Amino acid sequence: MEVKKFELNDIVEMKKQHPCGTNAWKIIRMGADIRIKCQGCGHSVMIPRREFEKKMKKVIKPVSEA
Fold first, then answer.
1. Which domain of life, per UniProt (predicted)?
2. Residue 48 included in any domain
């Protein structure tokens, strides 16, 4: 399986869309759990790292570009 690389403040695309209509999320905390913030409505969710890696599709905008 491919190892996905992501960093703090990256904008990532998740496999499932948020109810507000977007699937772009910003990583705002990293550790054993990862907190992500919806770029559409501002809602934040904390999920285990393993679950996040499974549900993340790709990095849309790496922090190194910003």
1. Bacteria
2. yes
Total tally of structural domains belonging to the chain:
1
Question: Which residues form the domain of 22?
Answer: 11-59
Model confidence, pTM: 0.86
Mean pLDDT of the chain: 91
Q: How far apart are CA 66 and CA 45, in angstroms?
A: 23
Strand partners, 27: 36
- Answer whether residue 27 is part of any domain: yes
Q: Is residue 48 predicted with pLDDT exceeding 90?
A: yes
Share of the chain above pLDDT 90, in %: 83
